[in-house]
């Protein structure tokens, strides 16, 4: 009697951090080098795994629902971005959300992801009512509906067209979508949603992949934009399999220090727009507000002549951001002086101190040096070297920098001031904020266009920059 060969169960061990799989359990992932992240899951394969000479059968061809058409006859209106009502989010997304697009918003706990998306949901619901479109569906898997309601009252995000559901099961979520036909779907978060047809707990690699695939399919079939909240790992990467980032259309990173008000939204991946735009938000007790001009957070209110300060302009993507660098040089009785930084690159500050000691004889080997930014801003690009050096010398020699001065440029180990990118944009932003004198690298200065009310001082060496910034009368 002939026997029928059934499908064998195939066991694999998959890394929950990066998605790498191994036929046997290992303590460390060979791909991302994480320890204890391999989890076992079982899948079946047609014809049995390991059968010699057996190749899985490919899918049988079927008649497509829509025939292929010449590209000139395909309408592009369906892919037009629609504003969300939050200008800074629209800036990062490239004008708004595209129907059928799936956006993944990742960030550390407490950074304000849920607050931002609840504000987006309320504004989008109000806009959908005016246009006669469907409501906005907000599905929360981490909080109860009452908890989300309290937050909505606090940030004034209540609208009759905003529907709220607390679900953790994929089938129930899809049922809500089928019943209300929303114009926008928000899921907070994808790691809390699970499918009863898939093995494993919520947040596991198989569950995240299955839930993401189902939501992407619904988004494409119904032309519904979907915003997903994603958790991050302890290293700052998006939790779950790496395939999740490849499946979605847009990946945004929400950043910020929980002790500061500033929040930055960056597009890591964007199929519909640029990836070098940055959105700025102010997170306060009354909610989150977009900042079209965040300069007030990064500059001191009073620009008096105080030693140890120097303003600069950094570039966050294509966006110029003014930052004030503050330095303090204080004597110490300890044998090992301290080097404390906040908001700046510690290694670049150490290099600037070494260059000042070797090239300009500004010795800080017996003093404590503190370098910080104002308002929790981050100034880690090389173009901030010149402002850091000027602030340190100003603090060490007790010479205040004149008001209205801004400086940017990279400092090399020999003391030369190297060229930096985006000098014209930095100058324009500084002039808009009222600065009237700028110290810039000599290299590339001939291509600069004049800025009204701005005196540009090109320098080739750090000694020239110190002399221009700290005149000794």
From TrEMBL:
Q: Where is this region: Lon-protease-like?
A: 368-473
Instruction: Show the InterPro entries listed in the entry.
Output: AAA+_ATPase, DNA_repair_RadA, P-loop_NTPase, RecA_ATP-bd, Ribosomal_Su5_D2-typ_SF, Ribsml_uS5_D2-typ_fold_subgr, Rubredoxin_2
A Gene Ontology biological process noted in the UniProt record is:
recombinational repair
Do the record's keywords include Protein transport? no
| GO terms for cellular component | cytosol
Q: Where does ATP bind?
A: 107-114
> Which part of the chain is the RecA family profile domain?
78-232
Where in this protein would one find the motif RadA KNRFG motif, according to its record? 269-273
Keyword annotations for this protein, in alphabetical order, are:
ATP-binding, DNA damage, DNA repair, DNA-binding, Hydrolase, Metal-binding, Nucleotide-binding, Stress response, Zinc, Zinc-finger
Write out the GO MF terms. Answer: ATP binding; ATP-dependent DNA damage sensor activity; damaged DNA binding; hydrolase activity; zinc ion binding
| Role according to the record | Plays a role in repairing double-strand DNA breaks, probably involving stabilizing or processing branched DNA or blocked replication forks. DNA-dependent ATPase involved in processing of recombination intermediates, plays a role in repairing DNA breaks. Stimulates the branch migration of RecA-mediated strand transfer reactions, allowing the 3' invading strand to extend heteroduplex DNA faster. Binds ssDNA in the presence of ADP but not other nucleotides, has ATPase activity that is stimulated by ssDNA and various branched DNA structures, but inhibited by SSB. Does not have RecA's homology-searching function.
The text the record gives for the protein's domains is:
The middle region has homology to RecA with ATPase motifs including the RadA KNRFG motif, while the C-terminus is homologous to Lon protease.
The similarity annotation says: Belongs to the RecA family. RadA subfamily.
**Which HAMAP family does the protein's record reference?**
RadA_bact (MF_01498)
What is the designated name of this protein? DNA repair protein RadA
Q: Which organism is it from?
A: Actinomyces glycerinitolerans
What gene name is given for the protein in this entry? radA
